[in-house]
Design a protein that fits this description.
It contains 14 helices and 13 strands. The protein is α/β, with parallel strands linked by helices. It has two domains: 110 residues, Aspartate Aminotransferase, domain 1 (Alpha-Beta Complex), CATH 3.90.1150.10; 220 residues, Aspartate Aminotransferase, domain 2. It has a seven-stranded mixed sheet, with helices on both faces. The protein has a four-stranded antiparallel sheet with strand order 9-10-13-12, with helices on one face. Helix 2 crosses helix 11 and helix 4 packs parallel to helix 11. The structure holds pyridoxal-5'-phosphate (PLP). The site of pyridoxal-5'-phosphate (PLP) has 14 residues, from helix 5.
């Protein structure tokens, strides 16, 4: 494809400065997808049945959110005013920028982490202060607290934490989160719990305790609904009311609402898939160690492994066999591979392929 030349209209400076995003390759459906931490078996059959019952007339009507919000809020154990539905967590990040970040504000991230935090912050014209996990993948909690305790004019506007973190799989513990939230008097703290189901830990109920806390969940991972884009943002009603003012009127489509309601009515599917993944993850961790990789114990549905100089060849050879995993270059050095845990059959397949390659 030919590179598009610039349009005659000047582009915002923040946009010109963005690094291009590496979107997943197209045509992944028939491969073994262990590169984006998706559900590998698909959503609950009950979701498909519910979607097939949508009528032509319902399709013609703009989405209505009240009823689904009420049902989802009850499922998550919050009040409807404490929850806001978004077009995936990605859209929630965009909305956080639109509501709270002025050009030139600073935001805080701890890298490596989910790339979209930096992306949406930079898009909004924010300065990104990036602390780093160390070689042992430990979260630098003291430095984070120090950054939050700066005078109000200099402290970051937003702090983004993925918990468990992607791509390290590590957890920030409750005690550390408590220290952070107490220090964050002038900073909005987003705790992104996209992998909550695999972690067995949440601070969702803390939204009542800390006025600057937002918690995010998604139907993209354990529930297997990445295609429909549905995220849930939780926080104090005042914060969410401000965000609704900045939101597009219909961020979530009606099919996603129907799917989410069907998904929460089938908790057994979620429970069984989660249990399968946890067994598969244990098998993956053991297998990777046997292959000589250094791993970082994971609380999510993926494992980060350090293969050193063999990593690049490994990722390419797996791809030729139709198995997609994620090579990461943005660590202190190259050599890290993130592999999603699907079913145990998926894990057996990827381990066997890696054995042959190495
Ligand atoms: C995959 C992932 C998401 C997904 O967000 P959606 O936009 O809801 O699909 C969010 N946060 C983290 C840390 C992730 O890894």
């Amino acid at each position: 494809m030919k590179r598009a030349s610039r349009p005659a209209i000047p582009i915002r400076k923040a946009v010109l400065g963005l690094a291009p995003y590496n979107a997943p390759e197209e045509g992944r459906a028939r491969k073994l997808r262990l590169d984006f931490n998706e559900n590998t078996v698909g959503c609950s059959p009950a979701v498909l049945r519910a979607l097939s019952r949508i009528t032509a007339k319902e399709m013609a009507i703009y989405p209505e959110y009240q009823k689904t919000t009420k049902r989802l809020a009850r499922f998550f154990g919050v009040r409807p005013a404490e929850m806001h539905l978004t077009n995936g967590i990605d859209d929630a990040l965009h909305l956080i920028s639109d509501t709270f970040i002025n050009d030139g504000d600073s935001v805080l991230v701890v890298e490596p982490t989910f790339d979209m935090y930096r992306f949406f912050a930079e898009l909004a014209g924010a300065r990104v202060l990036a602390l780093r996990y160390d070689e042992e993948m430990r979260f630098p909690v003291d430095s984070v607290v120090r950054a939050l305790k700066q005078p109000a004019t200099r402290c970051p506007r937003v702090l983004y934490i993925a918990n468990p973190n992607n791509p390290t799989g590590t957890l920030v513990q409750r005690g550390e989160l408590r220290r952070i939230l107490r220090a964050a008097t002038g900073t909005l703290v987003l705790v992104d719990e996209a992998y909550f189901d695999f972690a067995g830990m949440t601070i969702l109920s803390w939204i009542r305790r800390y006025p600057n806390l937002l918690v995010a969940r998604t139907f993209s991972k354990s529930a297997g609904l990445a295609a429909l884009r549905l995220g849930c943002l939780f926080g104090k009603p005042e914060i969410l009311a401000a965000m609704r003012r900045a939101s597009t009127p219909y961020p979530v489509n009606s099919a996603a609402l129907v799917a989410a309601e069907a998904a929460i009515r089938d908790p057994r599917f979620l429970r069984e898939y989660t249990r399968e993944v946890l067994q598969s993850r244990a098998m993956l961790e053991k297998g990777l160690v046997r292959l000589g990789a250094r791993i970082y114990p994971s609380a999510a549905n993926f494992v980060l492994a350090d293969f050193g100089p063999a990593a690049r060849r490994l990722v390419r050879a797996l791809e030729r066999k139709g198995i997609l995993v994620r090579g990461r270059r943005d660590f202190p050095r190259e050599g890290f591979v993130r592999i999603s845990a699907g079913t145990r059959a998926d894990t057996r397949k990827v381990l066997r392929a890696m054995e042959r390659i190495l």
